[in-house]
């Protein structure tokens, strides 16, 4: 029996054509499918195009829209392929991993570095691999399929702007590679049983504070006014500077005293934060309850905080944040 798959086309380079203003999404889902005739042999595909954007413009409302399309069509299809721009695909994949949990059916994101009509494009391979992976009976959950790798939605990061191997699986193996149109599994995992769980809200008032040497602590005046959640992208193992008479620690204490939530992470791409290692990190504990993202990707930390803060605050938010979803934290 052929698998029935819903293609959710959202734009990106894969659907882009050269215009007088530069590359912009213009290719329809059916035109894309016409470029990969082998897909029709493996599965029956129907298409929707909820929006057609460069993924620079894709954020929380779009993530919620994609999740709601999957929810409304869940019973009618065996899997979902989301075509998407590469720039923010890792954020969308992480967000979908929180919005669609315990899914025994696959939700596969893909895109490309070059337009489907350009010579030497990676679009055909990625599209074909995404559908063939989605149609495989071992597939489930939210995954990115790109350049032959199958990466967990919670572990992906765009690490290259030009090369075909644009995505890396950070501090976790790719769960499979595609070989001749079939997944060769490295990590088997266990297919969820029971019903999928869909979530319908995100708190967009999350800010990422990327530390640079010498940053001034009065940024906290803005953060206290405008955000519910803060991800501090600190240096190395993690910490805050104690210049300006400890103004950063005072700012963070003020932020937390307002009932807001702060998460510490690191700018280092690998191996995560370790807040208790240095005095400049351990002192964060004196500011109030600070969550530590550890080995999470920034994309997962940000979107998980948006998901958590739509559901809970304070201690409950902390507990939810630390509860692993698809190997996002361990
Ligand atoms: N700017 C494009 C986008 O993210 C890049 C791509 O798709 O590769 O929509």
The helix content, as a percent range, equals 25-40%
Which small-molecule species are bound to the chains here?
Answer: aspartic acid
Q: Number of helical runs?
A: 10
Major β-sheet, in short?
8 strands, mixed
* Beta-strand residue percentage: 15-25%
SSE topology string:
EEEHHEHEHEEHEEEEEEEEHEHEHEHH
Q: Which whole number gives the mean pLDDT? A: 96
Rg on CA atoms, Å? 21 Å
Q: So what's the overall shape?
A: elongated
User: How many β-strand stretches?
Assistant: 18
Quaternary state reads single chain
Query: How are the strands of the largest sheet arranged?
Result: 4-1-5-7-8-9-12-13
Distance between the termini: 38 Å
Structural class: alpha/beta
Low-confidence stretches: none
